[in-house]
What we know:
Elements: H1 2-17, H2 33-50, H3 56-68, H4 75-86, H5 92-102, H6 108-121, H7 124-134, H8 140-147, H9 156-166, H10 172-184, H11 192-206, H12 211-217, H13 223-232, H14 241-251, H15 256-268, H16 275-278, H17 287-301, H18 309-316, E1 331-332, E2 335-336, E3 341-347, H19 362-376, E4 382-388, E5 392-394, E6 400-401, H20 404-417, H21 427-435, E7 443-447
Parallel strand pairs: 3-4, 3-7
Antiparallel strand pairs: 1-2, 4-5, 4-6
Helix pairs in contact: 1-2, 2-3, 2-4, 3-5, 4-5, 4-6, 5-7, 7-9, 9-11, 10-11, 11-13, 13-15, 15-17, 19-20
Amino acid sequence: MRWTARWLAFAMLLMLVLPMGHAPAAADDGTGAASVDAVAKRRQDEFEELQKKRTTQAANQRLEILRGLAFAPCTTARRFLLGLVKKSSTPGDERVGALQSLVHMLDESALETLLATLVQAKDPTLWQVFSESLGSARSDTLQTWRKGPALASRDTETLAAVLDASAGGADAATLERVEALYVKHQKPPGSPDLVARALRALATARGAAALPLLLEAVRHPDPRVRLVPADILPGFEPFSAEVEAGVRGLLADEVASIRQTAAARSGAARRSGLASALIPMLGDIRLRTRHVAAMALQQITGQLLGHDAKAWAAWFAKQDPGKPEQLTLPSYHGFSVETDRVVFLVDASSSMTWPWRKEPHRIDVARSELASVLRQLTPETQFNVLVYAEGLSWFRKAEVLATPENVAGALQWAAKALATPAGDTHLFEALEAAFTTDPQFDTIFLLT
């Protein structure tokens, strides 16, 4: 059976690498192992030749090679793919593609090296790809590790990846270990983030049996844990009085993101019985919360009454709502700014000078749109601007109110920061900086 699987992988690889009419090379030793390595080496050589070409076609061909190598479980392919993942200079999409193929052929040594690489890189995208690939990976070594040693790891990123993968399905024995982690990290110095991930995995895998844990989490002191029932309970079946009470508590939570999540999920689940809890949210201090509540009520009723709490109350009382008050929102590149806590990330790399022979250039549009939206912000709105290329430049160290003085200062600053686009686009670094400044915003507009 093992050699049948090897020959199948070899055949699938040859379909990807040989033109029609070409016959596959004969196996050197009767197993096909030498031929698989030989084909993988040729594909590696082709990849390295294509690296010399800076064209879109060459980039797409390199990605196609990486996808094809997933069907070549051999030493050559494993070593090549692992090398691409280890190099921080590897382009992001190619690094991801290499990782997606590598997980199907990991042996113990390669798995150990890969985990060390992921821990050192501290790249959330790579961890997410690794987690999403765990469930479907064809490597027996990886699956054995996932169900055993992985859940005993002391590294929080490794545990997080495995717990997220367990949400996609796990056997009873694995779920028992997940529950043990859930209990363990409830106590100091446990990780609330791991508690939340374990809870989501248990709720997804066990369904109704996890209801007591979800209801208990509604009152958890850490908002990351409360966010899980806010996401799951509004759509829970059966939607009992106990579940409804839990959701109502989440709709009144002190943390805006939890109120917003519970409201959005209540709307998606068409929970008309929660209208009496959603209508008061139209007076919430946060614009984003008011908007999410209005959208939830619209989903539940099909009515377009906007943010007008009186109109909604009248409609539910079967009275004429009249003409609801209209809320005018700022616009940025055609998108409504449905928040009063916002950060704008604007690309100032060399690509923003395109098209070189036509006007307006991308950077001209970027300057104009940024200036327009800043002038539209209400004085109560908190905002900030980050201009990025190879480096990062903030307007302010933290969000500021959109007073006339601050808006004027931002316009003057942006004119200089966006004056001369140059350098590469360090997109990940810009997003990482935005999320690590302990921000008060709930919305990011990313222009690239």
